[in-house]
Write a structure and sequence with these properties.
Elements: H1 20-24, E1 35-38, E2 49-57, E3 66-74, E4 77-78, E5 83-85, E6 94-96, H2 99-111, E7 118-120, E8 123-125, H3 128-140, E9 150-152, E10 163-165
Parallel strand pairs: 7-10
Antiparallel strand pairs: 1-2, 1-6, 2-3, 3-4, 3-5, 8-9
Keywords: Ribonucleoprotein, Ribosomal protein
Organism: Papilio xuthus
GO molecular function: structural constituent of ribosome
């Protein structure tokens, strides 16, 4: 008896589902009013889904894409503006919610408790080597040595962002540091100072 070995070639993917065109193309009125979900958003405990508002088909040369406007609910919060889906519409990561489950999904938003705001810091301490270079530079130039060695943080913008950046003297709820934090394997760092 011989065993068959199957070897997969190419990139792996975490997508689970159909392309948006496969879903809306098979529905009456292109699925306007129906609810879809992206599998990648199912990792969050809060409900994330999209209600189709408008659909435009694309020219023949872009058969795998479709332009869809949706009312998006991300992590239990409904976004104020309509969201356009075009660039990701070809990804096989969308699922259609059956009509009999739509009411439960919409009801689940009301069950989401208001989570405390996540406030991100505006600055972070400088890396140790950069701090030493600046201290040495200030010494050489006879300048006053700084008391705080911090630099501004820059965040990518996203309509899905649920955290906000601290304003003025507001205290952040999250802190980022230059340390290694808690290592996954502490035994690898025995005898090594981590600070």
């Amino acid at each position: 008896m011989t065993t068959t070995v199957i070897k997969y070639v190419g990139r792996t993917t975490d997508f689970k589902g159909k392309t948006l065109w496969e879903i809306v193309g098979s529905l009456k009125n292109f699925g306007v009013g129906r609810i879809i979900v992206r599998s990648v958003f199912e990792r969050y405990p809060e409900p994330s889904f999209m209600k189709i508002v408008k659909v435009e088909t694309c020219p023949d040369e872009e058969r795998r894409r479709v332009r869809v406007w949706v009312e998006k609910t991300f992590r239990g919060k409904k976004l104020e503006k309509l969201t356009e889906i075009y660039r990701t519409s070809y990804k096989p990561d969308y699922k259609l919610i059956p009509k009999h489950e739509e009411a439960n999904l919409l009801k689940s938003i009301k069950d989401v408790h208001d989570f405390p705001d996540v406030i991100l810091p505006r600055t972070i301490e400088m890396p140790p080597l950069m701090k030493k270079f600046i201290m040495k530079d200030h010494e050489n130039k006879g300048m006053e040595i700084l008391k705080e060695y911090v630099m501004p943080l820059s965040y990518n913008t996203s309509p899905n962002r649920v955290a906000r950046i601290a304003e003025g003297d507001e205290k952040p709820t999250v802190q980022f540091t230059m340390g290694l934090g808690k290592p996954a394997s502490p035994s690898l760092y025995e005898g090594v100072p981590l600070n």
